[in-house]
């Protein structure tokens, strides 16, 4: 089970009304390498991985939900007071028709989230390598959003999230090392 | 701080329709080089750690828009 702390992992501040940025950010909300995919992937892998790395998947999977909440806050703030006309100009006309200003799990191109974004091979090394790749892809996505964003406050939060991807990648790499170590030990029994 | 940005020079054709970007960049952040994190590494203060997104200077690899710095 989880305990909920009623605050964001890192403050989210938005300086300009720019619904176009919301459209880009949705990639990290419901995209293939987004925070939802990450959270579901890691929390699901916990059950079929050696005991030593279950805790890591638990912790990182939980943190991904905290990131998801930050992205949601950004999108919400960027679109809250926009008019349908502004949304249309930002390329969000189709979104407005379908969802009004409700958030939806979709990528920047409007493609809805699908479970096929998540692999679960049951092979610990295959799964951890996928996790490392997922972190690097999410890091790259943050980079490309930062390149497109001219909002200095928002970029601070995005830089924080990007750095977390780096730390997570590091931890998954260490998890692989732990599992290699285990195998070596058994040989000497 | 060591630089985590690498560059390469892509092929430029005389028939390319757009003005060429002669240098392309990519990021190679700290986790590619650290290996299993050694014990007793230097830590940021808690306030800095929150700001940077990591407790460890060895893992801190900030990013800036390469298209902006090139100008």
TrEMBL record, chain A:
SUPFAM superfamilies: Ferritin-like (SSF47240). Pfam families: Mn_catalase (PF05067). CDD domains: Mn_catalase. InterPro entries: Ferritin-like, Ferritin-like_SF, Mn_catalase, Mn_catalase_dom. It comes from the Bacteria. Belongs to the manganese catalase family. This is Manganese catalase family protein. It comes from Terrilactibacillus laevilacticus.
TrEMBL record, chain B:
InterPro entries: Spore_coat_CotJA. This is Spore coat associated protein CotJA. It comes from Terrilactibacillus laevilacticus.
């Amino acid at each position: 089970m989880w305990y909920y702390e009623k605050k964001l992992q890192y403050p989210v501040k938005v300086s300009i009304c720019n619904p176009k940025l919301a459209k880009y950010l949705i990639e990290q909300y419901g995209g293939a390498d987004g925070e939802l995919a990450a959270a579901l992937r890691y929390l699901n892998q916990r059950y079929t991985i050696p005991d030593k790395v279950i805790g890591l998947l638990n912790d990182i999977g939980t943190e991904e939900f905290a990131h998801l909440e930050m992205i949601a806050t950004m999108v919400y703030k960027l679109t809250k007071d926009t008019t349908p006309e502004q949304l249309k100009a930002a390329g969000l006309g189709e979104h407005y028709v379908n969802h009004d200003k409700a958030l939806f799990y979709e990528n920047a191109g409007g493609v809805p989230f699908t479970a096929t974004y998540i692999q679960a091979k049951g092979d610990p090394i295959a799964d951890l390598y996928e996790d490392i790749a997922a972190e690097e892809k999410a890091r790259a996505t943050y980079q490309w959003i930062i390149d497109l964003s001219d909002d200095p406050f928002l970029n601070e939060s995005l830089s924080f999230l990007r750095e977390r991807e780096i730390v997570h990648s590091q931890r998954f790499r260490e998890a692989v090392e732990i599992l290699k170590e285990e195998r070596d030990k058994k040989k000497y029994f | 701080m060591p630089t985590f940005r690498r560059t390469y020079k892509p092929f430029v054709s005389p028939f390319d329709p757009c003005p060429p970007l002669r240098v392309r960049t990519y990021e190679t952040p700290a986790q590619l080089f650290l290996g299993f994190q050694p014990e007793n590494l230097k830590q940021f203060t808690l306030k800095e750690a929150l700001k940077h997104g990591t407790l460890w200077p060895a893992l801190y690899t900030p990013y800036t828009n390469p298209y902006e710095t090139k100008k």
